[in-house]
Batch of 2 targets.
Target 1
Amino acid sequence: MTAPLNWHFPRVELAEKLMDRFQIGATTALTLFAPRRMGKTEFVNKDLLPLAEKQGYITAYVNFWDRKQNPADSLIVGLTRATGSLKRTAKLRSMLGRITGGSISTPIGGAGFTLEDKGEADKLDIIQQLFDLLLKDGRPLLLALDEVQHLATDRKFEPIIFALRGIIDPNRDRVRVLYTGSSRDGLRKLFARRNAALFSSSQQIDLPTFGRAYLEYTAGVFKQATARTLDINECAKAFRTVKKVPYDFRGVIDMLITHGGTDIIAVTELYLADNSQEETYRSSWDSLKPMDRLVLQYIILHGGVGLYTAEARAHIADQLGLDTLDTAPVQNAVNRLRRDGHIASVAQGQYELEDPYFADWIVTAAAR
Ligand SMILES: Nc1ncnc2c1ncn2[C@@H]1O[C@H](COP(=O)(O)OP(=O)(O)O)[C@@H](O)[C@H]1O
Ligand SMILES: [Mg+2]
């Protein structure tokens, strides 16, 4: 029998670096940022948490995007799953039973209550108790909170932020937290919360993009799967074409497997055509105010800087058929674009489009 294919390219060094910060640096919280589909979730689940477990941690993984309307449910599901690795003494089991009135069960499966039956206060109580249970285990706890910026998207999630803080803060000696997020602005917004001192003490780490080793690894697995050999330079070119997004590169490779041959460049074009966001981009573009469109174009063409200069404003005013333009309307446009997730502030006075493909689309298609 042949071994199953393993497409996962391990990020061992990064995992070790993070764990070192937790262990040696005594850091309580770290934040890992990368745009969507760059490999955060896979890194956390396949590299970081397994390493943490080897080092003697009990780990819990929570993804706030798995139930966007109900972050409390996401927490309960994640913490409940983590209790699965508790040393199951009779005492712990009976405690677990008491928390949930018979059996731990969630909409993920099993019998008993479903989370829909519980009120918010009950849920916060369950979260607290699950957490206490995890801490009773004796091992330090590594809590991974994926897409945590989601908690800052709605006022009604505020109690969850408070609950998390109330749980994590008093247990700083035993608990380490990894926050991950897909939106720089979203994370900033969450961490800037006046009452969330906990978040602001977190150090940020960017998830590095993959290099040649990843391409060689993937080409190796592709060869195992198909007995075909890929040219690494062509792979590098294809990878750049998909903006170094592993999700898309994997999509290209899958397509190449069924397509046949080794022409990864041609298949990349096919992949991009098949996954075209043409309609989505066209309709978001059409829904934008003229002012906002000009601001987006200016950001793309000028590397995101100088948006408020007299020159930039004169240029935008000219396009709008106005004599002059104050900074206020530009600022308003920026605020709208940030609120709707089109742009993020990457540094003081510097902006970037959240979706690099939308930026390309604007350059080539919007003018038509
Ligand atoms: N370390 C890796 N090795 C191989 N492929 C990866 C790796 N990380 C991510 N990928 C590919 O990219 C896809 C998206 O990764 P994911 O972790 O879901 O991204 P994110 O959480 O940042 O949105 C995965 O489904 C996988 O195909
Ligand atoms: Mg993810």
Target 2
Amino acid sequence: MTGIDICVRNARLRRRGDALVDVAIAGGRIVALGPALDVTAREEIDADGNLVTESYVNPHLHLCKVWTLPMMAEEALKSYRAPGMAHTASAIDLASKVKASYDASWIIPNARRAVALAALYGSTHIRAFADVDAKARLEGIKAAREERIARAAKLATDKGRPGAINPHYLMAELGKVLDDEDIIFNEGVTNAGAVLLQIPRRVPNTTMRSGGGGLGWSGGMALGAKLAAPDRLMVQISGDGGFYFGNPSSVFAVAQQYKLPIFSIVMDNSGWNAVKQSTLRVFPEGEAKSANEFEAELAPKVHFTKVGEAFGAYAEEVGDPADVTAAIARCVKEVRGGRAALLHARVTRM
Ligand SMILES: Cc1ncc(C[n+]2csc(CCOP(=O)(O)OP(=O)(O)O)c2C)c(N)n1
Ligand SMILES: [Mg+2]
């Protein structure tokens, strides 16, 4: 057998007793399994009789509490270990005392260490918890929040290249000029995460998404919201695919006719990235990948600005990361001044 990427030798499997087998992997899938496989692989790993298994999922990990054993009274440990767990209630009571000393400054490094170790021992998915109560206060949440802010800043440092603006940078710059009361309609699809991460909201109901999967809602919804709350800025953020679905000519016509200035941003990554990524997840080494053809590319030379301009909107196309800040400022100025604006941003291609 040829074309094997990895062969794990001498592996012990669950429910197979002490028998040792080899596992051959090609294209991310197990293609052969048996004793002493006659295969040549690009990479050979000797499991040396150790267990080879699917990765683990840890559905319950209190990340704010990891590595706090030394801080716990010895008594708590003893109570936990009492015969028949007779003193569990008092143990929980004693252990919860540790919450009083929670501090985000040590929770972060402890949590990092625990997650790294978990990955090392095969847990690839973790559902984590942070205590929120009178004793723990919000220290665990504070730690998670600090981590999130640091991660967001790191992701936004790279501005991207001309023709391929980093969506995280674009959203971080937008976030700087939005007020707490402004409302975002997030139809960014595969860039929706960048919107959420880079523009944290402080006021409830200032970031909206659709409850269903149908694309094309953000323009209409932004118009409706503008009608309901004329003093607030409405920002429609859409992918290039979603922009088509939203019937943008009607959106800008209504904006003009009924004086409903909204700010629309198209994150143009040149096609239906969600469709491409879904195909790759189902067929990681399939025909579409080898042909590099996902039937997901959209017309390359479009100028969405013209759609807005046809209805009197202010419109700009931005491709160079160096122009992002000024372009956003010009659009926001126009919208706050009463005219709809459209920013066609050429972001990292799919
Ligand atoms: C009305 C409608 N048609 C088709 C789909 C299927 N669909 C889901 S995501 C997607 C691609 C969206 O492309 P784009 O808005 O450019 O976002 P990207 O995936 O590139 O981030 C499509 C076609 C849908 N959700 N709704
Ligand atoms: Mg797209």
